[in-house]
């Protein structure tokens, strides 16, 4: 049986009082845990003086409002402009209708965040603008199957350069400068498929990592995209 409004208010008040006096909290997903395991965990937590409570997401968020663990709102505005060019070079001996396309792109963006409060004081994430440039190669095959579908697998390699992006985040009167500059390499592969005259699917997966000019930290990551395009 679900909690009524008064029960929910009581839970929020109880958890808020506990959280407000703590220096550290741990949030974990309990989905898939067996009841016996959770019961055992409760017993171990109680023996160690650890407060453990199972909450739904909404109640958990409300319970930390007004505490040092509250989410920081990140509302703001942004503007992005991009200029891209490429030139396809047919190389049919490398596969069915294979095209190698050298590409270049320049992106400029500006992002501005509204001032907020993290329950410990005012936080100003600031405004930043900067440019990114890309030089790369894309190799693409075009295959028509007997059903009239068009399949276009491709591979790509890019060199990215970020420069000029900087911002200063203010925590009350304390400033934390942010400098984002790096040279990155990207390798990816994907597939676009025209299934019907107005329906296309696409998917891509790749790996990207910094090779120089970082701000001192490690930068790498895996990225994937999947989408549907329909036109009429």
Describe it for me?
- The chain has 232 residues and is of the alpha+beta class.
- The protein is 16% helix and 51% strand.
- It contains 3 helices and 11 strands, in the order H-H-H-E-E-E-E-E-E-E-E-E-E-E.
- It has helices spanning 5-20, 35-47, 57-63; strands at 76-86, 89-90, 99-113, 116-117, 122-124, 127-140, 143-144, 150-171, 174-196, 199-212, 220-230.
- Strands 1, 2, 3, 4, 5, 6, 7, 8, 9, 10 and 11 form an 11-stranded antiparallel sheet that branches.
- A hairpin with a 2-residue loop joins strand 8 (150-171) and strand 9 (174-196).
- The longest helix is centred in the N-terminal third of the chain and has 16 residues, at 5-20.
- The protein is extended.
- The two termini are 48 Å apart.
- 4% of the residues are buried.
- The model has no long low-confidence stretch (mean pLDDT 83).
């Amino acid at each position: 049986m679900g909690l009524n409004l008064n029960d929910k208010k009581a839970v929020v008040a109880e958890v808020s009082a506990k959280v407000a006096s703590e220096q550290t909290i741990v949030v974990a997903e309990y989905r898939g845990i067996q009841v016996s395991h959770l019961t055992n965990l409760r017993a171990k937590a109680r023996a160690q003086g650890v407060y453990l409570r199972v909450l739904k997401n909404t109640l958990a968020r409300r319970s930390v409002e007004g505490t040092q663990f509250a989410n920081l709102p990140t509302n703001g505005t942004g503007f992005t402009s991009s200029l891209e060019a490429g030139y396809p070079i047919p190389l049919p001996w490398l596969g069915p209708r294979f095209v190698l396309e050298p590409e270049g792109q320049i992106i400029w963006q500006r992002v501005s965040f509204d001032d907020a409060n993290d329950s410990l004081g005012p936080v100003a994430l600031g405004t930043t603008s900067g440019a990114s440039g890309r030089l790369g190669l894309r190799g693409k095959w075009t295959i028509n199957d007997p059903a009239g579908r068009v399949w276009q697998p491709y591979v790509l390699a890019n060199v990215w350069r970020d420069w000029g992006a900087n911002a200063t985040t203010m925590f009350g009167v304390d400033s934390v400068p942010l400098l984002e500059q790096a040279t990155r390499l990207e390798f990816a592969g994907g597939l676009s498929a025209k299934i019907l005259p107005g329906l296309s699917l696409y998917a891509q997966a790749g790996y990207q990592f910094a090779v120089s000019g970082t701000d001192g930290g490690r930068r790498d990551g895996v990225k994937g995209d999947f989408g549907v395009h329909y036109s009429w």
